Amino acid sequence: MRKVGEFQEEKKALRFWNYLKERGMDSSLEKEDGDLWLIWVDDEEKVEQAATAYGEFAENPDDPKFLSSKPLKKPEREEEERVDSAPKARGFEERRLREQWRRSERRLGPMTLSLIITTTCVFFVSLLTKQNPLDFNELPNPPAGFMISGDGSWDQLLSGQAWRLVTPIFVHFGVLHIVFNLLWLGYLGTQIESRKGSKFMISFVVLLAIVSNLAQFLASGPNFGGMSGVVYGLFGYVWIKSRLDPGDGFYVEQGNAIIMFGFFVLCCMGWMDQKQADGSTIGIANWAHAGGLVVGLAWGYGSALRWNRGKG
After folding, report:
1. DSSP letter (8 states) at residue 152
2. Can you give the pLDDT at residue 53?
3. Domain span at residue 274?
4. Same structural domain for residues 148 and 288?
């Protein structure tokens, strides 16, 4: 859903809204404070067509093709908020979209919730069995093969175990590790899923998982895990969209952006590595972070550039 126009006059807003409806472009009319009327188009694929029509309407709102629009009946949707002072005869559908978005973002979408539940279950299985997550492949009947490769080679992947490109995202090595990742997953995933849908969300997560896991595997071998590569990809997408395409409604508070970029730099400098009692070091999957971040930024930039060029 995207805003395509705004009006100072209710009459013109209704006229243009009806024009879009008659041409099969599902849209919403929202009243802002200060008597400003906003038009939102529901279907991303029709945003370009609606934006072109808005430009024509702005130049000549009295064009006969706009004047010929007829009032439409108000649809019956119980979940929509309506303004009591707006008479039904006006025949328009009004939504408090920003309020709806905020409410939807307080509820985890099905894909985001499924990822959180799956990750949490894997973590508790490793705790209850006192099993190091990196040793899941040594279990008598490993559920799916959680690591990208148990022996550091490509043999398992080439033999058809393609799930190993994704499943490392469910493996975590401590409470802080999993809490950090899942909090960010909830914060970013609900935004993306509420605006782009569950299908886009899960497809994007799978893409980020494959790229970030492969990047880390090629750089350091098979001993890694975590959702952070995906999280950085989601962050990159939301952050660049919020800056270059604010009409899509994404947002990242400046403080949160500083935390994410700062953490990325500190990890790359080795300041977040953990020293073990035996003298060994558990490093951070920096290449997974970088791979996910690059994909998220690139995808968000491409989407914003496409819109800014008038292609939706």
Report:
1. S
2. 83
3. 107-308
4. yes
Phi, psi of 41 (to 5 degrees): -100, 130
Q: How many domains does the chain have?
A: 2
Q: How far apart are CA 269 and CA 261, in angstroms?
A: 13
Q: Per-residue b/e over 250-284, b at no fewer than 16 CB within 10 Å? A: bebeeebeeebeebbeebeeeeeeeeeeeeeeeeb
SS3 string of 23-74?
CCCCEEEEEECCCEEEEEECCHHHHHHHHHHHHHHHHCCCCHHHHCCCCCCC
Do 41 and 164 lie in a common domain? no
In terms of domains, do 181 and 97 share one? no
pTM over 0.85: no
Is-contact 297 264, C-beta < 8 A?
Answer: no
For residues 168 and 226, the answer to whether their CB atoms sit within 8 Å is: yes
Q: Do 194 and 109 contact (CB within 8 A), yes or no?
A: yes
Domain boundary among 52, 67, 102: 102
> Is 147 in the same domain as 184?
yes
Tens digits of residue pLDDT in 93-114: 444 555 555 555 567 889 999 9
pLDDT tens sequence across 32-45: 766 777 787 777 67
Record the tokens describing residue 59, joined without a space: 């130049």
